[in-house]
Design brief:
single chain; about 280 residues; mainly beta; six-stranded antiparallel sheet; 2 helices; 19 strands
Length: about 280
Amino acid sequence: MHRRIIATAASICLVFIIGMTSLGVSAEVKGFAGNVFSDIKGIVGLRGSSQGNAIINKTVTDSKVSITVQDVLCDEYGVYVSFIVKSDKAFINTNDTQLLLYDDYGKTSFHKGDLDTGGVAGLDGKFIDKYTFIGVETYLFRHLKTEVLENFTLDINIGAVSLNTVADDSVIRGKWKFSVPVKLNSEGVKIITPAIKQNNISKKKVTLSKLNTFIEIEVPTSLTNEKFTVVTDKGVTIDPISCENKENNGKTTKIWRLKGIPDGSDGLILNIGDTNPESIIINIK
């Protein structure tokens, strides 16, 4: 696996698992007694409420590293899983907001292949102390050839954890496996398709999901490699995660995946170019 390339209104997916914690209460794991989604909402760009979910609180320990699946959110674009990772050995670079995982994949009961992590190698979140990291992993439904089922099982496999958050060393190998029953709730996903064309740039679609933003625009091939930034009307820069280009007849359709748009945002400003950027304003109310 590689380090992160850089580094949606949404629906909540209820997950019911019998665990150590009762429903509707934050999972209590030694060293952290809060709700991961609530605690790192601003870091990962979570839209809407993170409350009202069934708490899983299932822990697997191997090689003196315990990994807990605390909670799950889900919409028709992906499954978002919160984790608590504790190590007997201290982590390195604990000011970082990423934790590298390896041999990390998610599979569903209705699709044979692995789900797409979209250019991300690990968790997005923060350190509670030098032994504890809380974060979120996204498993995208990008290449499914069928509709997402209302109820399904998500199998998660993690094969290694890096104690060093900025380098592929100090890796601890083990077997951390989880099987999570999931219930899809697609209510609230927001798709915006206004006809905006400006100087040969066409805005085709903006999708807001629980933890991701997808922006699809068409530009002349000459602009394929131009710098692209997204800022909300409140001045918040939305971090990009990955980009996909599809070229056809001298034009390029660019599909960006970015972090979620903060609550309270009414519009987005797309800036294309570096020296004299072309700006496109999109209303997302």
